[in-house]
Amino acid sequence: MFDEIEGLCDKVVTGMQVTTMTAATLAPSQDVAMLTAAAVAVERVRRSADAAQLAILAELARRGFETGPDGSTLETRAPAGEVAELACDTIALALGCSDHDARTRSRLAVRLGDDLDPLIRPLMDGAVTERTLRLVADETQDASRDAAAAVVAHMLAPMRGTDVPRIEALDRHDLAQACRRVLDRTDPGWRESRAEVNRRERTDVRTYPGPLGTTELVACLPSETAHVLMAGVCEIARERQREDPELRVGPARALALADLALRGVEVSTHVTLGLALVRGPSEAGEAEVPGDVKTAGETRTAGETRTAGETRTAGETRTAGETRTAGETRTAGGARAASAAEGRLIDVGATVEPWVGGVEIPRIGWVPGFVVQQVVERLDSRVTRALLDPETGTVLETSTTGYVPPPSVRRLVELRDTRCRMWGCDRPAVACDLDHATVWPGGPTCGANLSALCRHHHRVKHAPAWSYVLHADGSAEWVSPAGTQRLTWPTAYAPAEALAQAPAEAASHDTTGAPDPSTPTQPTTSGAVARHDTVDHGAVATAPPF
Question: For 58, which of 93, 109, 398, 436 could close a Cys bridge (C-beta 3.0–4.6 Å)?
């Protein structure tokens, strides 16, 4: 019977496909009542599908693996109501969702398979949403089994004067209050004990990428602290709006919060400039050097390197140190830099101020290039530079015979990966372990054999029945115990062979043509050194090949 589930789901998907095509064709001719009825019908199917998946996850989330006495892999089963240690990672890969979503749904699923079992029925009937059940699960998270059972019975009982169960009739606010009133009667003092634990263990401040160029700052604070802080933010925001009547409330509050947080605080930042500096030939009829930067829409003649904004007249020749159009200058040695923000070249060793492009910072978002420039110019900033070999793209002097990566190797991997190499994980590489793909000393301590893995996914990689392979092109292949395969690529570069295969007309992003940074350092024929300065987790070369 269980093997028929896939076939049944295929029929449901087919029905939804027909519904989609019918709606796209006939919906404009229908009235509001008919459209609303159709939307409600589809919502009922979606909720019922959520119930079916949670019923499966309730068991899947309890499955784990361990290594037996003889070295074989054994399947285990966690106790009822508990999630197996690494089961959420298997689920996240299989469903293509984030680790957070997998954990949230897994915890709800095992609760629905245990002490909240009766609540699956209204979800299966399409009467409530999964979010509603999660609210009840969260409210009863630390309650005793008797208290949780009392809450469930109260939620399924009809609302006073109606035949509709409370879980269907109440909105989220009233539903939460109803749960708490039952807990107050059955488990006195639960609020105080839970509040004490939450204030001690669950307060935190986190960042998430917001709309392009912004970051969401989320804080979980003691309630009285949050109340006072918000009052201060609103007061300063009103002052700013009096000074600038065109300033909207939202931006005014954001500026006010920044004022409060940075008032009386000295900030020192560590910035690495996002520029690729290349030493190439200085004679007329120059040749393109590995690691050189060109912009989309650029055209070149054989052996010539130039930027999109550059023009040249017929028969023109150039000499070393010549100043060019489009903001380009060149030193006597032929070294030059490329502006990711404006596609122009600048002098490496002269007094010309470098220009930087925007950068993507994990868990923060995208920072425009002009803002990065202001940070460099106005704040007390320390600048770090990484010397890269133009033939291999690797940091010079990165070879080591030891197990612990030297600072140069760590800097290379952090700039190349920018985040944990597990599919869906966004933990910054600077907060990750450097893992040897091939276990040391069998595998060397170099960029080609190292990748950034957060502590949790470092453990997942070494767990029974999991497979992790770091390929020569920089891609990392994960295979879960269920057989789900996922590939991830370094965030900050594309292998040279991938760039060569890409059609010219598809070059919508600036590329450097830099070879694979994960390749071990090799001697170069020209002795040239490419210098990469990046902002925080800025790109070492270009976007990955996907």
Answer: 109
Sole residue written with tokens 């060397």: 444
Q: How many CB atoms lie within 10 A of CB 418?
A: 26
Write out the H or E segment, with its range, that includes residue 336.
strand 335-338
d(C-alpha 344, C-alpha 333), whole Å: 18
Tokens read off for 144: 């005793």
Per-residue pLDDT tens over the stretch 20-40? 999 999 999 999 999 999 999
Nearest to 83 by CA among 61, 99, 59, 66: 61
Residue 444: the pLDDT is 84
- The dihedral region occupied by 231, where left means phi > 0, alpha psi between -120 and 50, and beta the remainder, is alpha
* Amino acid (one-letter) located at 318: R
Chain Cα centroid distance, residue 61: 23
Residues 221, 154: Cα–Cα separation, whole Å: 31
- Residue 530's nearest CA partner among 329, 342, 319, 348 is 348
Q: Name the helix (H) or strand (E) containing 433.
A: strand 433-436
The pTM of the full predicted model, rounded to 2 decimals, is 0.67
CB proximity list for 139: less than 8 A, separation 6 or greater: 151, 176, 179, 180, 183
In terms of Cα–Cα distance, which of 545, 546, 424 is closest to 484? 424
> Which own/partner pairs from 453-462 qualify as long-range (CB within 8 Å, at least 24 positions apart)?
453/420, 453/421, 453/422, 454/420, 454/422, 454/425, 454/427, 457/89, 457/420, 457/421, 457/422, 457/425, 458/432, 458/433, 459/86, 460/86, 460/89, 460/422, 461/435
Dihedrals φ, ψ of 197, to 5°? -65, -45
**Confidence class for position 6, pLDDT limits 50, 70, 90:** very high
- Short-list 404, 323, 441, 418, CA closest to 361: 418
Report cis status (omega within 30 of 0) of the bond before 441. yes
SS3 2: helix
Alpha helices in 5-60 (DSSP H): 5-26, 32-60
**CA separation for the pair 451, 63 (Å, rounded):** 28
User: For residue range 175-225, what is the model confidence (pLDDT) as tens digits?
Assistant: 999 999 999 999 888 888 888 999 999 999 988 888 888 889 999 999 999
Q: Residue 385: helix, strand or coil by DSSP? A: coil
pLDDT tens digits, residue range 121-154?
A: 999 999 999 999 999 999 998 888 999 999 999 9
